[in-house]
Specification:
mainly alpha, globular
Length: 212
C-alpha cells in the first residue's frame, strides 16, 4: 500500500533500490523472531546494502522526497516481515493468506481512491491485469516459495526485479536515475549478487560433506 505513494513522492530508482535491502531486513527479523541462523556472509552483505541505502537517503531533496523514501523504507520492512511470517508458519495455507491480505488491502484503500467513478473501461482492464498477474499471481508464487527457502534467500530472489524497475521507467518515461541512486544501487546489487554467488559455491560443498 505504501508503494504507490512512495513512487509519487520520490523517484522509481530510489524506491527500487531501497526495496533491494529487504533480504537483509528479513534475515534480521528471522533471527529476532525464531533464531533462524544468519550467515556471516549475509550479514556483511547487509552492511554494504545499508551503506547503499544511506547514500540514497543522503540525496533526498525536499519534504516530498524524504516522505517518499520513508514510505519506501516502511514498505521494505513490511514485506520483510511478511516473508518471515510465511517462513515461520509454513504449515498454514499461504495462498489463502495472500488472497485475504489483498482483499483487506483493497477495503482499506477504497476510502482513499480519488475519482474512482471516472475510471474507464480500458483503465479497468489494465487494473484487472495488474491485479491478476502482478499482484495476484506474483504474490501467490512468492508465498508458496517462501515456505521452502530461508527468509533471506527468498527475499534475495525477489530483489532480481530491482535493476529492471528503473530501466523500464527510463525507457517509458525518460526518468533518468540520479547519480546517488546509481551509486547506492550499485552497492546494494553488489551485496545481493555476492551473497548469491557465495551461496552457490558453498552449497555443493555442504552436500558433499553430508554424503560423507
Amino acid at each position: 500500500m505504501a508503494c504507490r505513494p512512495a513512487l509519487q513522492l520520490t523517484s522509481v530508482a530510489n524506491v527500487a533500490i531501497i526495496i533491494a535491502a529487504q533480504p537483509f531486513a528479513a534475515v534480521a527479523l528471522a533471527w529476532i523472531w525464531f533464531r533462524e541462523p544468519a550467515r556471516l556472509r549475509t550479514l556483511l552483505a547487509s552492511l554494504v546494502a545499508l551503506g547503499g541505502v544511506a547514500i540514497i537517503v543522503s540525496g533526498a531533496a525536499g519534504g516530498a522526497d524524504v516522505s517518499g523514501i520513508g514510505l519506501a523504507c516502511l514498505m521494505m520492512l513490511a514485506v520483510a516481515a511478511m516473508t518471515v511470517a510465511m517462513r515461520k508458519h509454513r504449515e498454514t495455507s499461504m495462498v489463502a493468506a495472500a488472497a485475504m491480505s489483498n482483499f483487506l488491502g483493497s477495503l482499506v484503500s477504497i476510502p482513499f481512491a480519488q475519482s474512482i467513478a471516472s475510471v474507464g473501461a480500458i483503465d479497468i482492464a489494465t487494473l484487472a491485469m495488474f491485479g491478476l498477474l502482478q499482484v495476484g499471481l506474483g504474490l501467490t508464487l512468492f508465498a508458496l516459495g517462501s515456505r521452502l527457502l530461508p527468509s533471506g534467500q527468498a527475499s534475495l530472489i525477489a530483489t532480481l526485479e530491482t535493476p529492471l524497475m528503473p530501466f523500464w521507467i527510463w525507457l517509458a518515461f525518460q526518468e533518468a536515475p540520479a547519480f546517488r541512486a546509481l551509486a547506492g544501487g550499485a552497492l546494494v546489487m553488489a551485496a545481493v549478487v555476492a551473497d548469491i554467488i557465495g551461496d552457490m559455491r558453498t552449497r555443493p560443498e555442504t552436500v558433499q560433506a553430508a554424503k560423507r
